[in-house]
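Extended Data, panel c. Modelled sequence:
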Amino acid sequence: MTTSQEELLPGTRRALLHRIAVAQAEGRTPSLVAAVVRDGKAVWHGSRTSVDGHAPDENVQYRIGSITKTFTAVLVLRLRDEGLLDLGDALEKHLPGTGAGEATIAELLAHTGGLAAESPGPWWERTPGSLRPELADVLGEQPFLHPAGRRHHYSNPGYTLLGALVEELRGAPWEDVLRREILEPLGLSRTSAQPRVPHAGGWAVHPWADVMLPEPAEDLGRMAPAGQLWSTSGDLARFAAFLAKGDDRVLSAESVREMRTPAAPAEAADVVDGVTYGLGLQIQRRDRRLLVGHSGSLPGFLANLVISVEDDVAAVVLANCTSGPLLSAVGADLVRIVAEAEPRIPEPWRPLREADPSVVELAGQWYWGTYAFVLRVTADGLLSLGPLAGNGRGSRFRANGDGSWTGLEGYYAGELLRPVRRPDGAVSHLDLGSFVFTRQPYEEGAPVPGGVDPEGWRGIS
């Protein structure tokens, strides 16, 4: 018997509503709207508001601040996938004369380019973009605060440079490229650089009194690729589904997986907190879950998008206040509520349609010295090597078509796995980047280290 997974259970829906109700009330925000995505589809929307009869729905726009950076990162990865640039290229190769061209494109994506966090001059979030018409106005006379590539230092000007790179290589404004290459293919019709009705107004709530004042909504100009966009919980739910699984019309599953992979050296405090950064995506460990996504803020607005790929659950939370509820915690809680109340139901196990005997022959137990490992043939045609028990080095391996396999992650990423055969064709051992894996510990006749001692295994005399 199968059960429909389209709808959440009533208890789960009530728990989600309770969480956002507490966030809106204790965070003192005029309104808050949220969505939950499971299996690539929005399965829940909820909202709370201070105005009776005017609760926002999934089509009401809010400013999303730095979630805009993730959209910009997708555009850059598209350029890479088309062969127009390499992430290791210095910016100067494609966008000369900025004064910050020694930083690579990958470093800018990961906020490791060494650039300042903010633009010099008046606070760019609260002043018109017309005050910074050129890149030189965004970067200032000394754009670098740190050596490029040495540390993670969040940089808004860095994403302005990436937006300018997109414009240079596409020969069109960033906003037009965004609409043509991401928004239209993914059906994000309610995401735009300028607000469209219905949209929320941004508010500042007094920290010590229940009164408010409206916040201005400035056009960020050159800084737009770092934080300009307005969007809805409905559109961001669809964007979250894309970031989890990819869409070949925009970016492949492999490339979005690359975006979700840590790319920045972590500070000591980041190691303790379990946070790092990929290529346009924040990564954190919370409630024993690996979460990816991005947060955002601009005067009058807060935003958060978070995904647990393993649980296949994502959440979006938007609010119209300058400060208030910690939306990253709210989003993580929404994911946790669904993942724990309604755990992901795995697909039925099915045997492989075809099996290569020379590959199946590799499956089973192997030893590196006295360390026991197991090699499995996975349903997606990969090999998976990992410790038989406990923690240790492990990786999946992709076939190269010549009998060898290349590691995809961890210590063995990029390393070559070669089954070495005897003259009769039987497998003698595995060579993994010069490490020898044998069917028995220190197997006699195997190379390096072979049987080690001619007297063999022994007890204590």
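DSSP finds 13 helices and 19 strands in the chain. This feature is highlighted in the accompanying rendering.
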